[in-house]
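User: Show me sequence and structure for the first protein, then do the same for the second.

Assistant: Starting with the first protein.
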Amino acid sequence: MENHVVLTACIDELQSLRYTPAGLPALDLRLVHESSQVEAGSPRKVSAAVKAVAFGALAERLARQAPGSIWTFQGFLATPRNSKTVVLHIQDVQQN
């Protein structure tokens, strides 16, 4: 099975940079996506708010970005322990 996500979205919220118990930089974000998609042959406006997390140098890089900036995020989805929500684990970004 494959678990790969590519999403163009703006950074809506950035939490403070934190560190894992192993000392790895980590950053929690909220991303917002809006677009027009075709579903069942008809155009549809869609929007989504997505929780995301980045680690290491990527977390440090994203922590310096302005809310509202638009990026293309690549990564995978996972559900944290004791949670029912899905989180995008960011592995790569490109600014749009």
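Switching to the second protein now.
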Amino acid sequence: MGYYAVFLPMKDKEKSKEFRPQHLAFLKQMRDEKKILMNGPFTDGTGGLVIYAADNLDEATSYLKQDPYIINGARDWEIHEWVMETDVGFDF
């Protein structure tokens, strides 16, 4: 299992507002399925960050491409494999 940091910079503010409920439902479902470790918006309104848990980059990218923000062109995206280092325990 690896972790993949996805930056979701703002592409279209109106589409982001329109598809926010679907995006949030998607994130919750993916967290419930243990496919997302954590997520959240940037406080300056420029976008957000999602940390996916996946076996490889292709799998993480396939998750990302199911996000209503991506499907509907509300956000751009950038993905990087991420090595998590923490002293806090998670059930992943």
